[in-house]
Amino acid sequence: MPLPRCEITNAHTTLSARQPKAALRTGSNRRHWLWKGCFMLAIGATIGSLCAQRAPLAQGVDDVERLREVIHCEDCHQEIAREWRASGHARAWTNPAYRAFIAENPASEETCSPCHAPKIILSAGLNATPELRDAARERGVDCIACHADRDFVMHGPFQTRAPHKTQKDKRYRSVQACLPCHGQGRWFNQVDDWRASRYARLGITCQTCHMPRIERPSVQHWALPDVPRRATRRHTFLGGHDRELVRSAASLQVQIDDGAALVTVVNSATGHALPGAGWRAVVLDVVVEDERGTTVLHRRHVFDLDVHDNRLKPGERRDFRYALPIETGLVKAKLMYKLFSEWPDDKGMIMATREIRFQAR
Fold first, then answer.
1. Which of residues 19, 38, 54 is at a domain's end?
2. d(CA 75, CA 221)
3. What global pTM score does this model have?
4. Local confidence pLDDT in tens for the 361 residues of the chain
5. Which domain holds residue 22?
6. Which of 33, 197, 280, 308 is the most exposed place for a label (fewest CB within 10 A)?
């Protein structure tokens, strides 16, 4: 008799099909096999209940949207769910900064909200802006929004056995998966910036920076211990709220050259324009102080799309030269990132700082 296989892991169960009769004559062995049998029955019941969901669960977008109330992806995808819960995607609708922005700019809600609580993006297609869903908006951009189609087939980079239907979709390894919300219009279009950059030619995608690579099983469940490890991506969706990523986005240099301070800013590690969205801002603040710490020169440059339309393209370098008004002193340069250009400096993130002293020869 062939050993049974788990449909999800494709592995044989560990309970032998035949046991020596002599071994069953002792009370201890009888109890051993009784407990082992119960354990395997429990595993079988768990997998059976999961696999029962393989029948079609939904027909059409509205049916899939209602499944948010009964489907719990975190039951099996525990690490991915943990990462998502801490991400900006999970907080896309409830983020206080976003709620305050909409309260102050109600006319923007119609264009902004669909990407903060979208219906399944595959219903509109990966080349179109998604629709705003009616229910469970507090879940933000969740698993169903990104991965499910209208028949509740879950799309992703792998074809795999699962309690639900899956579809290997190579677009989930590319910028196409990001395009519905990050490639539309003028104000939030990092995809077009990327396409015109060297990163596109090198095959460095959005996922490379915003979903770091990791090797692990895609499922963590006590009934499925043998799911293989494989190279996949973290669902952290790092972005403008992540200080480490922001600090790595650009470089700042200061030099003294022939009686002048030369300050250089380079968009050295961002695959799109810096800053990325229309209401974001990057600020260069340069101060020259004398030996007593008194400011004798102060210059400020703002890079944004909203007011100045002067963002740094991928790889772009900009030099700023300031004649030094004194012979001995200190040059201090600071590069800041703001989620909203009107925010005061103390609400921004420090991207880089540089100082250099100078004196007369």
1. 54
2. 7
3. 0.80
4. 443 333 333 444 333 333 444 443 445 555 554 554 444 444 444 444 444 444 345 566 777 877 777 788 999 999 999 999 999 999 999 999 899 989 998 988 889 999 999 999 999 899 999 999 998 999 999 999 999 999 999 999 998 888 889 999 999 999 999 999 999 888 899 999 999 999 999 999 999 999 999 999 988 888 778 888 999 999 999 999 999 999 999 999 999 999 999 999 999 999 999 999 888 999 999 999 999 999 999 999 999 998 999 999 999 999 999 999 999 999 999 999 999 999 999 999 999 999 999 997 6
5. 1-54
6. 308
